[in-house]
Specification:
The complex is a heterodimer of chains A (444) and B (258).
Chain A (H helix, E strand, L loop, with lengths): L1 H15 L5 H27 L8 H30 L4 H9 L4 H34 L3 E2 L2 E2 L1 H5 L3 H24 L1 E4 L2 E4 L7 H21 L6 H36 L3 H12 L1 H8 L1 H22 L6 H39 L1 H10 L3 H30 L1 H10 L1 H24 L1 H9 L2
Antiparallel strand pairs in A: 1-2, 3-4
Chain B lengths: L15 E10 L2 E11 L4 E5 L6 H8 L7 E6 L7 E2 L5 H11 E4 L11 H11 L4 H14 L15 H13 L5 E5 L7 H14 L6 E5 L3 H5 L3 E6 L2 E7 L19
Parallel strand pairs in B: 3-8, 3-9, 6-7, 7-8
Antiparallel strand pairs in B: 1-2, 1-4, 4-5, 9-10
The chains are: A mainly alpha (444), B alpha/beta (258).
């Protein structure tokens, strides 16, 4: 109780000054605004399919749930990056507070409350961005008509649910981040054996299933519930397998790169990836499945469109076209989410390693060297993941892909262009953290 | 207590010479017309209270910072001096990689790299092949008493060992001058003594030049010269009492001065 009463004035004092230093709030708030805007827009886009009527209405609903499930992986990756950014410890301040007698409870409460406030502000900004984007995204055409602003409106309950999940992730990540460090008056240090966080993923999975059930029931699509559960099982098991295979594959192939690395950039980048292949996978693994489905689905739809357009009903043709658009859009959005996640993670890493980077700059390592290392550390795993997805696509659907290339080359060019556009987005994500690095090096 | 000895008669051109260095941060004048010449083979300790301008002086001498006014010339033996203050950012970075070495208080090693890779990094940045760079790095680690530790990461090294890796990194490219900023500031007294000996042996012990910023009088006393800075000016410049006069080669992989 004593510590509770002592905590309040400290919280009031620091929260009142939270927004005075741009360096403290700008990056976390921006990150969470991006997360909020994209999560709401993607959910709203998927939700808009549920109002489509006609013979294919139910099919559209199923497809939208499938797309949402596919995008949930990079979306979780992005939200996780932003949450980890919020949970970054600010050692000096935390240990100074301990030094002047603040209890561990006070210091931890302050860190969690600050993270929550920054996330909340970010989510408010993100909601405004989502609202502002509604007319633009509403121009997308499905089932022969634009989604429209009304179609993009999520409704208050679902909007609050999405924001609530994101807020929980922010607070949860902050609490877990604090569990891994010891704050003493002499400084802050990481515990030797970091707390394992596997149970969190189980919680997230349960939450996702519950949320999906809630979404289905709240929109009156109860008959879809069983199909949804089947899809979750059918889709979830391979995803679980991929969760283990992905990091392993990245580690094996990066070790080969390390052995052959003949430049400092290649050497340091390979070592960085091998420090935590799981982290590399979390950051870019989301594009593996969407790329596979984008290429296979894109090829299949291209073939279907070119082969049977003459004997098809107008409604069927429209559905085929929509399916192709949806597949490519899902792939592009997954890259966009990954690019944002890369940008946030890279910026956070530069801030974490500011002193080291400044020291390396003094040794004579230029910004070009450091940018090269950061770019390779992202693109090394990305090429591995894309190579894996494309090989899997070729191996599993070689005849379809081959026929599509011959019969519908233009459609396949569109698939390739989407893929290239996605890679460029990730490149943009790395570049977006360039100004943070410039700022850090300029402080030398 | 520092022995306030006059500087010995110095022959030949200086290796590093600064003239009229001035540097201002906002309204604070960190350097106020500093002149300083450093001869080859000297070990120069720069001392002064916090905010006196000693680190700024070292940064200007090493091309990390460009002074607002004044010049810094570096002259490798047998070559004509180069004016480093007129160099652009890229040229200064190259100069630091190829001609100068640095040791920081916190070591600033890349935690994901092994000791050997950390030491090899400056050579690789200068275009030396990885195999040769790592070979030379291993020799330097051995010379500094870190035999068999070349595959260890930062987290597997003690503070003193990590600092010796940093010294090896500073030396591996055979720099003209090694700059050290509080190199023993984060170490206990015994380790500090060992690291300082390793640093001196591997630099001035081989006829190379060392410029070191320090707060510690005992550390400064191990150098051949002490420069005191206050309010951006040099207020004292004298020889130290305990200048090393023993031979070279205690910490060089090739076993002798070059």
């Amino acid at each position: 109780m004593t510590s509770m009463t002592g905590t309040l004035p400290i919280l009031t004092l620091f929260l009142g000054r939270l927004f005075q230093d741009r360096k403290v709030w700008l990056l976390p708030v921006t990150a969470y605004a991006v997360v909020g805007a994209l999560a709401l827009t993607v959910t709203a886009g998927a939700r808009s399919f549920w109002g489509i009527e006609g013979d294919w209405g139910g099919f559209y609903t199923l497809l939208s749930i499938f797309a949402l499930m596919l995008l949930s992986i990079p979306l979780m990756g992005l939200a996780g990056s932003a949450a980890r950014l919020l949970a970054r410890r600010r050692d000096e301040r935390l240990s100074s507070l301990r030094l002047i007698g603040a209890s561990s409870w006070t210091v931890r409460s302050l860190a969690v409350t600050e993270a929550a406030v920054l996330a909340a502000v970010g989510l408010v900004v993100g909601t405004v961005v989502y609202l502002a984007l509604m007319p633009l995204v509403g121009l997308l055409q499905f089932a022969g008509r634009p989604i429209g602003v009304a179609g993009m409106w999520l409704g208050v309950p679902i909007l609050l649910l999405v924001l609530g999940v994101l807020m929980l992730m922010a607070v949860g990540s902050s609490v877990m981040g604090l569990q891994r460090i010891e704050i003493s008056p002499l400084g802050v240090r990481t515990r030797q054996a970091p707390a394992r966080a596997h149970w969190v993923w189980a919680l997230v999975a349960v939450g996702a299933v519950t949320a999906a059930q809630f979404l289905v029931r709240s929109t009156g699509a109860q008959d879809m519930a069983m199909v949804l559960v089947m899809m979750l099982i059918g889709f979830g098991l391979p995803m679980l397998a991929l969760h283990f295979i992905g990091p392993w594959l990245i580690a094996v192939l990066t070790r080969r790169t390390l052995r052959r690395a003949d430049t400092p950039e290649r050497l340091v980048a390979a070592r960085s990836v091998l420090e935590s292949p799981q982290q590399a996978w979390r950051q870019i693994g989301g594009v593996a499945v969407t790329t596979y489905i984008g290429v296979v689905g894109g090829a299949g739809m291209a073939l279907a469109g070119s082969a049977s357009s003459t004997g098809m009903r107008a409604e069927d043709m429209l559905m085929t076209q929509d399916l192709r658009t949806g597949v490519l859009l899902t792939m592009l959005i997954s890259f966009l989410l990954t690019a944002c996640s890369v940008g946030i993670t890279q910026a956070a890493q530069v801030l974490d390693r500011a002193e080291l980077y400044r020291g390396l700059g003094q040794l004579g390592m230029t910004r070009t060297h450091l940018d090269g290392i950061r770019r390779r550390a992202v693109f090394g795993p990305l090429w591995i993941v894309l190579g894996f997805a494309l090989t899997a696509a070729v191996v599993t659907t070689l005849p379809v892909l081959g026929l599509s290339l011959v019969l519908a080359p233009v459609s396949m060019l569109v698939v390739a262009a989407t893929l290239i556009g996605g890679v460029l987005l990730v490149r943009g994500g790395v570049s977006a953290s360039g100004p943070t690095l410039r700022g850090v090096l300029a402080e030398a | 207590m520092t022995a306030s000895l006059p500087l010995p008669h110095r022959q030949g051109p200086p290796l590093l010479s600064a003239l009229g260095l001035t540097k201002t941060y906002g309204t604070t004048r960190a350097l106020d017309g500093v002149d300083l010449s450093i001869m080859p083979g000297e070990s120069v300790a720069i001392m002064g209270p916090s905010g006196s301008g000693k680190t700024t002086l070292m940064h200007c001498l090493s091309g990390i910072l460009v002074p607002d006014d004044g010049s810094v010339q570096l002259a490798a033996p047998g070559t004509s001096p180069v004016e480093i203050t007129v160099y652009g950012e890229e040229e200064r970075a190259r100069l630091r990689r190829e001609k100068l070495g640095f040791v920081f208080q916190e070591g600033l090693l890349l935690p994901e790299l092994t000791a050997q890779e950390n030491v090899a990094l400056p050579l690789m940045l200068s275009g030396v092949g990885r195999a040769e760079a790592q070979d030379r790095a291993r020799q330097w680690l051995g010379a500094l008493g870190l035999d068999g530790m070349h595959e260890r990461r930062l987290g597997e090294l003690s503070g003193g060992q990590a600092q010796r890796v940093a010294i090896a990194r500073a030396q591996v490219a055979e720099p003209l001058v090694v700059f050290a900023d509080e190199p023993t500031g984060a170490l206990d007294s015994t380790t500090s003594e060992q690291v300082l000996t390793a640093l001196l042996d591997s630099t001035t012990g081989r006829g190379r030049t060392l410029v070191m910023v320090t707060h510690d009088q005992a550390t400064a006393d191990r150098c051949s010269r002490l420069v005191r800075v206050q309010d951006g000016r040099i207020v004292a410049d004298s020889a130290c009492g305990s200048r090393r006069s023993d031979g070279y080669a205690t910490a060089h992989p090739a076993g002798g001065a070059r």
